[in-house]
Description:
CATH class of the largest domain: Alpha Beta
Number of helices: 10
CATH topology of the largest domain: Rossmann fold
CATH superfamily of the largest domain: Response regulator
Structural class: alpha/beta
Number of domains: 2
Strand content: 5-15%
Largest sheet: 5 strands, parallel
Shape: globular
Radius of gyration: 18 Å
Strand order of the largest sheet: 2-1-3-4-5
Distance between the termini: 52 Å
Amino acid sequence: MAPPVPIKVAIIEDLEKIRAGLAALISGTSGFACTGAWGSMEEALAGVDGASPDIALVDIGLPGISGIEGIRLLKERHPRLVPLVLTVYEDEERIFGALCVGACGYLLKGTPPAQLIASLREAMEGGAPMSPQIARRVVEHFQSPRRPAPIPGYDLTPHEMRILRLLVEGHHYQTAADELGVTVNTIRFHLRSIYEKLQVHSKSEAVAKALRERLVH
Length: 217
């Protein structure tokens, strides 16, 4: 009988010591193989085709392309790849930003090795592993009293609100355009206005702000 195929893991972490430690842990664990370890998202995007990972451990605070933007790019290019955040950041903007662009879970650095391996397995089985502190923040966010209406001052039009709601639901430019029966260029035009009004610079930042401030229901 052939041995089971190992779970192929990629690591995207700018700190060399942490990156090397994670690679050693994964490579030394039965049923796992580290097929790529990169210090930046740019390197990962260039190397992921050859590494063919099943799952990627992604830091948020990367030089150049951020982990959140990188997760979005990775999912666009490799829809089957499972990104799992491993970071020191535990603020709501980054948590929801990462989850909304495709991260399957969110772990904090300092997660014990055995728990990290268990979380990788859980993610591959369709779960959403989170450090306890992160899970608590997510629960508290949705349990906190809802504001009766969007915060005044952003002046989003009804059409812009519809587009923002689609982004929160996970749509990208093309699927949002299909949903509303408009062109992708029309979506891009309205997004520029939405970003300017919300004072953000990307889809992930807009989604995170919409969730944090209850702009959509």
